[in-house]
Amino acid sequence: MIYKNELAFPKNFFWGASTSAYQVEGANLEDGKGPSCQDVKEVPEGTSGLTVCSDHYHHWKEDLALMAEMGFKAYRFSIAWTRILPEGTGAVNEKGVAFYDNLIDECHRLGMEPIVTMFHFDMPDALDKRGSWSNRDSVDWFVNYAKVLFERFGKKVNYWLTINEQNVLTLAGPVIGTMRLPENCDNELREIYRQNHHMLVAQAKAMALCHEMCPQAKIGPAPNIALLYPKSCDPLDQLAAQNGNAIRNWLYPDVAVYGRYNRLVWPWLRDNGALPEFAEGDEEALKNGHPDFIGFNYYNTGTVEWSDGTEEMKGFTSQQENDGTPGVFKGVDNGHLPKTEFGWEIDPIGFRATIREMDSRYHLPLLVTENGLGAYDTLEEDGTIHDSYRISYLRDHIEQIRLAITDGVDMMGYMPWSALDLISTHEGMKKRYGFIYVDRDEFDLKTLKRYKKDSFYWYKKVIATNGEDLSD
Ligand code: BG6
Questions:
Q1: Is 165 an active-site residue?
Q2: What is the pLDDT of residue 175?
Q3: pLDDT score at 405
Q4: Environment class of 147 (CB within 10 Å of its CB; exposed 0-12, middle 13-18, buried 19+)
Q5: Phi, psi angles (nearest 5°) of residue 363
């Protein structure tokens, strides 16, 4: 649809940005924090470890002040499970609680709504050693952690996100350093869908618990949703796109919202001997957990064609790149879309298409919890950073949100990735996303000083005009 008049962004729209604890905080074993899987993993060659990151743990006040200067209405960050419960279960680390207490209070003081992710790729190492999400006890571990969070922060956090990108954890665990398989695993697919099932049940229980313990709060999942297009109008390509979308995207919000598995994913799992086991009470738990909204991360769409099952495929090589699954779909280049310096396609129109699809499937308010451009930035001699490419990317995506609002979608806010530079999941510090530049390199910590990029000033104006002025 081409509209003659576009609707404005709602007055209470959450403009802000996102980070995650293990990528931004550093201080990875300080003040009683226990190690997570991210602290013990082998980082990809040529990329920084995760001990210092952007040193947000020591710069948080200054960082929040900069976000407030941009005019943020909300800030999405994650709580490190191991700062609160160093062993994953057991004793609470009061210094860890104090850190987030201060962070949350400061957000409120500055007029920014804290939007808190409970779990962002950082399983406590102690629990990893006990089998991570493969262990049925992981459901209880997560629910216990959720209870501690709701007890300690429940009165002052109004928006919670459960598990960041559960679909990426399930489908691309090796890329982000979270995959744990038990020894002698004879069916990898069955194992990862067992893990996935435990996460789904844990999430449903955490959502129900949130509603019980924090009646004022809203809670939702945060999957990575990327609509997959059929490569052509060949009907087989359409089937491939339906397969891919069911497995990559819809399974996750389907269970969160409707409490049941996606119809196409189930027979595929059955056919591969990978159906998850339902323990007593799981069905009821899935039905009882209801999200109030859906958070979702969007970077770009994918394109697929039919696979006859004979091809060799690598599967996911990053969160956004996937050459497919034999007999299910085959991932191909779109051909109409430019790519970032790091190889991800750029598709703002696909953002609107994805939003429309999410809206028509789930009928819930939508919060964009991530979206952004990873690029090489240059700090000039005079302390400026000219990231016009990031401004273009963000502008093109914000325009599509406005169109989606005009389409009738209830959009809650936009939390691009990332508020400040941080360490990428597997491509190090050099892949920068922030509005705020952090002065460090891959291996040289330099001054860790903060600088405002051109996109900082631009976003400030966007927020000040509630999205009316997107010009440079
Ligand atoms: C999302 C994650 O997959 O994408 C973030 O939730 C991540 O943790 C972001 O950093 C960008 O990906 P990458 O691989 O470029 O860091």
A1: yes
A2: 93
A3: 98
A4: middle
A5: 50, 40
The C-alpha atoms of residue 441 and residue 385 are separated, in whole angstroms, by: 15
What pLDDT, on the 0 to 100 scale, is given for residue 279?
A: 98
CA–CA distance, 70 with 457 (Å, rounded to integer) = 7
Per-residue pLDDT at 1: 85
Establish whether residue 122 lines the binding site of ligand 1, counting it when its CB lies within 6 angstroms of any ligand atom. no
Using the CB atoms, write b or e for 268-297: b if 16+ within 10 Å.
Answer: bbeebebbbeeeeebeebbeebbbbbbbbb
Active site residue 212: no
Pairwise CA distance, residues 181 & 203, whole Å? 21
Cβ of 370 closer than 6 Å to ligand 1, yes or no, is: yes
Confirm or reject: Cβ of 224 under 6 Å from ligand 1: yes
Q: What is the distance between the alpha carbons of residues 95 and 43, in angstroms, rounded to a whole number? A: 28
Look at the pTM and tell me if it is higher than 0.85: yes
Atom of ligand 1 nearest to the CA of 424: 16
Q: Which of left, alpha, beta for 281 (phi over 0: left; psi -120 to 50: alpha)? A: left
Q: What stretches in the chain show pLDDT beneath 50? A: none
Spatial CA neighbour of 111 closest among 185, 16, 28, 184: 16
Q: What are the C-alpha distances in Å from 235 to residues 182, 199, 228, 306, 359?
A: 40, 34, 15, 9, 25
Catalytic residue among 165, 191, 305, 345: 165
State the Cα–Cα distance between residues 204 and 231, nearest whole angstrom.
Answer: 35
